[in-house]
Amino acid sequence: MKPSIRQLPRNLWAVSLTSFLTDISSEMVLNILPLFLANVVGARTGLIGLIEGVSEAISSLLKIFSGWLSDRTRARKWLAVAGYGISTLVKPFFYFTTSWEGVAAARWADRAGKGIRTAPRDALVADSIDEKQRGLAFGLHRAADTAGALLGMLIALGIVWLVQGAAIQLSRDTFQTLVLVSVIPAVLGVISLAWIARDVPVTSTREMPRFALKALGKPFIIFLLIISIFELGNSSDAFLVLRAQERGVSVAGILGMLIVFNLVYSLVSAPAGSLSDRVGRKRVIIIGWLIYAAVYIGFAMASVTWQIWVLYAFYGLYYGLAYGTAKALIADLIAPELRGTAYGTYAAAIGILDLVASVIAGGLWQGVGGWEGFGPSAPFIFGSLMALMAALMIGVWNYGVPVRN
C-alpha cells in the first residue's frame, strides 16, 4: 500500500507544528544576523564565520549528549520542549545587544537550546513512524519547518520595507523590531509541543547505550565520514547572505531571495522524502549534493542580481532533496534504542565541522592577520569541490540496507 499523509501519527504533526512556529521566529532574526554584525556592529567576515561556527559547535556538542540522554531515559518529548524553551527565553536578548560579544552570547545560547532539542525531536519522529514512511515523515517535517521559515521571511520582508525601504544596509531599528515580533511564534511553538506530543515507548533487551561511536555500527560510521567531507566545505549560510550583499543586493532583496529559497525547500522536501522511500536514500542525496556543488560554483561566478535569485532557488532544491533524506537514512542504519545517540553524534560531527568550514571560508574570503585571502569567490569554489568529492564517495558506498518498498 502506498504511504499516505493521512496515516501519519500525532507526534509527527506536533513536531511539525512546533518546527513551523519556531522557524517563523528564528528565520526573522537569524538570517539577517550576519547583516547586523557587518552593517551595524562592523564585524569582519572572519569574525562572523567564527561566531557562526562556534554556535554550531556548541549546539552539536549538546546534541550528542541530549540524544544519548533521551536514549538512556527513554524520554524524548521533554528534552525537546526544554530546548525550544531555552531558545525562546534568550531571543529577547538580541534586542538589547550593542556589540559583537553580545550578539555572540545570545547566538550561542540560542544554539544551546537547539542542541538540546534536535536529537530527541528527530528520535521522537523516528520512533513514531513505520519504516516504510520514514522518508515521507522526515520530508514532511522539513516541509513544515521550511514553510515556517518562508512565512517568517515574508513577515521580515514586510517589516524591513516599512522601516527602511530598499536600503542596502540593515539598520538597528529594523533589527530590533524583527526581534520583538519574533518572540510571539517562538512561545506558541513551545506550547504546541508540550501540549500535543507524547513519548513513544521503546522496548529493547539490549543494555543501555553508552558514549561509544563503535556501538553505532560500521555503516553509520562510514556515512558519518562521507558526510564529514561534504560538511568541510559547507560553511555557514551567512556567507551566502554576505555574498548577495557584496553583489549589491539590498536587505529587502536578500529577504526576497530567502523567501524563494524556503518556498522551493518547503515544496520539495516531502516529495523528495517519499521518493527516497521508493528509490533509495543514496540516489536522492547524491542528486542533492551535485546540485549543491553547481550552486556554489554559481555563487563564486555570479556577477548580477538575477543570478543570485536563481542560485537561491536551486539552493532550496538541494536542501529539500538532501537534508531530510539524510536523517531518514540514519534511522535505516540504527537500532531504535540508539537513535537518539546516533542523531546527536551526527549533529555533533556536522556542527564541529561547520565551525572548521566557517573559519576556513572567512579566511579564504578576507584572509587572516596580514594575509588578505583569495576574495569572495574562494569559499564557494572550495565548498563545491568538497561536495563533488562526497558525492563520489557515497556513490560507491554499499551500506547493505535494502530499499524500503
Overview of the molecule:
- This protein has 405 residues and is mainly α.
- The protein has one domain: MFS general substrate transporter like domains (Growth Hormone, Chain: A, Up-down Bundle).
- Helices cover 77% and strands 0% of the residues.
- The chain has helices spanning 10-29, 33-41, 45-73, 77-90, 93-96, 100-128, 134-164, 172-196, 218-232, 238-246, 251-279, 281-301, 305-333, 339-366, 378-395.
- Helix 3 (45-73) runs antiparallel to helix 14 (339-366), helix 7 runs antiparallel to helix 11 and helix 12 runs antiparallel to helix 15 (378-395).
- It is globular and about 50 Å long.
What is the H/E order? Answer: HHHHHHHHHHHHHHH
| Structure summary, number of beta strands | 0
Distance between the termini: 9 Å
Structural class: mainly alpha
Tell me, what's the shape? Answer: globular
Count of discrete structural domains: 1
> How much of the polypeptide forms β-strand, as a percent range?
under 5%
Could you estimate the helical fraction of the residues in percent? over 70%
Assigned CATH superfamily: MFS general substrate transporter like domains
CATH topology name? Growth Hormone, Chain: A
Oligomer: single chain
Largest sheet: none
Under the CATH scheme, which architecture would be assigned? Up-down Bundle
Low-confidence stretches: 401-405
The overall pLDDT, averaged over residues, is: 84
Round the Cα radius of gyration to an integer and report it. Answer: 20 Å
CATH domain class name = Mainly Alpha
The total of helices stands at 15
